[in-house]
Structures are given as structure tokens and as C-alpha cells.
Amino acid sequence: MALISEIQQKQNNVSDVLSYNREEEYRRAQQAGAEAVMVGREALDRVVHQGEQLQNAENLADDTVHTVDSANRLLRGMTWSGWLANKFAKPVNPPEYRNLNVEINKERRSILKQLKTYETVPKSCIAASQSVQNYHLNLQVLEDCETDEQKRTCRLICDNMYRQADLKITQVLTGSKRNGNDCINVNGENVAKDDKTKYFAFQLKEDMSYLRQWQFVLQQISRGEMSKTTTVDEKTKLFNNNATNIDTQESPSFTDKVTAQQEQHLNTLSEQFRDLGFLAGNISISAEQQAEVVDSLNTKNETLHFKMNAMNRRTEKLIKDKSWGQQKADFSCYAWIRHQTSGRYLSIASSNDSTLVLSKNLNEKCIFGVYKRRRVLGLQNKYSRRWVGQNLFGQLNCSASSFDRRQEWEADGDDWSDTTLLIVSGGWGAGGYLLLDKEGKGTQPIIGGCDFATKEQAPKWCISEFH
After folding, report:
1. Spatial CA neighbour of 322 closest among 79, 2, 51, 53
2. In the CATH scheme, what is the code of domain 330-465?
3. CB count, 10 Å around CB of 151?
4. Residues 119-177: pLDDT tens digits?
């Protein structure tokens, strides 16, 4: 009997050590999960704060664009032609802020993107693509749910549709692996028959992953609601018999204690992982919104820079009109002007010295003297000794005998290796970019518009010094 008691005592000591090690391991794992949740919340706070700063920067850019537009309208109205143009132009409207539009509009804007339509769908992927679209539509329904019961029901439907769509995509990928030896002719080339199918299936899988992430964001459940539907209740139902046996026993066995500790540990980790999933979804939303704001801010900054240049040109024109004398132009260098895309050189025509063309060969008619006066440039052809500019009819020519207002050009900053060229007198003083005929594919230089869209399409030129 003494030997048996000693063996039981040793077993109890071993169980106590194992229990201690197990509890310590569980505690460390739960502590690591709690720390991860705290780090995720701090990261989300920082991301939201950065989003607010970017939004304020975009609002400031909107205000600046509105101020510059008003200043341009005012400067344009100081001339008779500009005053008449202002009579027929629309007034400058105040800016519309992105964040205020969401608050003012009573209708809640959907955070989901519009339903994606696939133009060319392989025959084997029709069912999978339809399942993805159905899943997207049900997510829109989930977003519009008002009561908690509706959200729970719609969430279960979305989970089921996600599994069905994922299963169909997996079947398509499995089928493409089996039939990977057949080939078809695509655009004159032999391509594996299931390459397009496999590529489309991976695209569907990527879209599904994106939609699944947004589902986790849409089903934001409070901690109180999560406690009602956590895996604790589900596991209690599944292991109801074991739980009853544990309650009825006066002293639970070692196995029952281990099982209970494991259940509690897994439930705690499950809640922490759920919180991490929601935090990751919110961070993803904030990052995507910030990317949109950054792209918008970049476009607005470029537009603002363009409008500021136009305002500076109008201001300098008014100053010149009010000044008594004219600033002398300083000679900079002799240079050739090359079209970056075609590699041709800007030159005067062989039959008519006043006409500008693009030449394949670099000769004496392609050399221009570059003069600088404040921010503007003057281009004098070395062969004909005539200045490039705009005639009375608004056409581009090289026939002026002096560097006047209609012969003033502007480049993008001081770097002339890759720049656009704008004639200041074009567009009734607003400027006009140097373009090519036949929608940029011809060889005849012409004067185009002065808006931001024309600037984006304007060809690039390289002005290089000629020795």
C-alpha cells in the first residue's frame, strides 16, 4: 500500500509540473496575442491619423486651386478680351471637399467597389465568375442590413457563397492542370489551351480574396455580440455530454482539467485572432483610401503647378504692358531641338524658310540660337536669322525679324533635356503647347491648346547645345 501511495504521489507531482508548464505556456501565448492586438490598434490609430493629415492636405490643395482660379479670372478680366471672355465663362465655384461630401449627403456611400464585369470569360470559368459576382452582390446586401438578426443571417449566406465560389475556382484550376497539353492559336501564336483559363481563375481568386477581406470589415461585431456567437457556445453544444459529466463529478479528473484549460485557451486565442482580423481589414481600408487621396493629391498638385504658371504669364504680360521699356534678351547658346519620340530635329523647310518641319538629318537649318529673357526663351534660326513664333493669324511660323511678344517660349524649368515647349502668346495670352499634326504622329509642328489635358499629351523635346 505504501508503494502504491508513493507512485500516486509521484504521478500527482508530475501532473502538477505539467499543469504548471502548460498554464505558463498558455499564459505566454495569450499575452503575446494581447500584445499583437494592442500593436494592431496602435497601428490603426496611426494610419487613421495619417489619413486625416492627407485629407487636410487635399482640402488645402482644393482651396489653393480655387484661389488660383479666382486670381486667373481676375487677371484675365484686366484686359478687354479677357473681360469679354469672363462674360461668357462660368463663375469659379467653391471647392467640394471629399470628407464633407460624405457627411453632408444623407445617403451613405458604399465602401464596396462597383460590381466587376468580366468581358471575356473562358467557357470553363463561367460558373466560377458568376459565383464571384453573386458573392459580391450579397456583400452589398450585407452592407445595407440594419438589424443584428439580418446581419447574422446575411453573414451566414455570404460565408456559404464564399465556400461555393472558392470550390468552383479550385475545380477550374484542377481541371487546367489535367488538360495542360492542348494548345490553341492566340494572336498567331501557339499558347497552351488552359493558360488563359488558369490566368482568369487566378484573377477570380484574387478578387475573391479582396471581397473576403471586405466582408470581415463589413461584419464589424461588438465584443458583447461576439460573446453570444463565439466558438465557446458552439463547442459547448458539440461537447455537451463531456461538459455535463464534468459538472456532475465532485472532483474532476486530470484529463478533464486539461480539456477545460485547452478549451479556454483556444477560445481566448480565437477572440484575439478575430480582433486581429478586424484590425487588419480596417488598416487595409485606410491604406486603400489613403492611396486614392495620394493619387488625387498628386493630380491636383500638377494642375495647381500648371495654373500657377498660367497666372505668372498673365501677370508678366500686364507688367510688360505697364512698363516703359523692355528687358534685353541675353544670348544663351546655339542648340538643336529634337523630338524625343521620333528622333527628328526641328528645322525650317527646304522650300520655305518660314515653315517649320521635322527633319531626319541634322544640318544648318536645324540650329537655333537660344535667347533668355526672364522666364521666357527666344528661338532664332541660325540659317535664316528669323525668330520662331506666332503670326497674326495664330499659326506657327519662323518669319519674325525681332524677338517680340509673339516669339516668347517657355520650357519646363531649367532642364531642357526632356521638356515641353509652350508659346506664351497662344490661346489669347494663356499659352499654347507645341504639338504635331495628325494627333501627334505627323511631322508638321502646330500650336495647340493650353489646358492640362493638352499638356499631358504634348510631345517632349530635347534642347541640346550645339558646339
Report:
1. 79
2. 2.80.10.50
3. 18
4. 788 888 888 888 888 888 888 888 788 787 888 888 888 888 888 888 888 888 887 65
User: Do residues 284 and 111 lie in contact, with contact meaning Cβ atoms separated by under 8 Å?
Assistant: no
Pairing of strands 330-339, 409-411: unpaired
**The C-alpha cell that represents 214 in the structure block:** 471586405
CB 161 within 8 A of CB 138: yes
Name the phi and psi angles at 431, rounded to 5: 105, 155
**Residue 419's beta-bridge partner residues?**
461
Residues 6+ apart with CB under 8 A from 465: 333, 334, 335
* Greater model confidence, 108 or 449: 449
The amino acid sitting at 46 is R
- On whether the pTM is more than 0.70, the answer is no
- Which is higher by pLDDT, 96 or 325? 96
Give CA–CA dist 62/5, Å, rounded.
Answer: 84
Domain ranges in the chain? 21-307, 330-465
Lookup result for grid cell 502504491: 4
CB 358 within 8 A of CB 345: yes
Sorted by sequence, the CB contacts under 8 Å of residue 410 that are 6+ apart come out as 309, 313, 375, 376, 377, 421, 422, 423, 424, 431
> How many whole angstroms separate alpha carbon 439 and alpha carbon 459?
11
Extract the C-alpha cell encoding 449: 491648346
Rg (CA), the chain: 36
H-state helical runs in 323-351: none
**DSSP assignment of 149-172:** HHHHHHHHHHHHHHHHHHHHHHHH
Residue showing cell 499659326 = 395
Which residue carries 478680351 as its cell?
Answer: 81
Count of residues in the chain: 467
Report the alpha-carbon distance of residue 296 to residue 58 in Å, rounded: 8
CA distance 350 to 194: 58
- 396, 447 in Cβ contact below 8 A? yes
Q: What is the 8-class DSSP label of residue 114?
A: P
> What is the spatial distance between Cα 239 and Cα 247, in angstroms, rounded to a whole number?
13
> Beta-strand (E) ranges in 353-408?
356-359, 367-373, 376-381, 387-390, 396-400
Question: Judging by beta carbons within 10 Å of its beta carbon (0-12, 13-18, 19+), is residue 412 exposed, middle or buried?
Answer: middle
State the first-to-last Cα distance of the chain, in angstroms, to the nearest integer: 113
When pLDDT is averaged across residues 273-296 and rounded to a whole number, the result is: 81
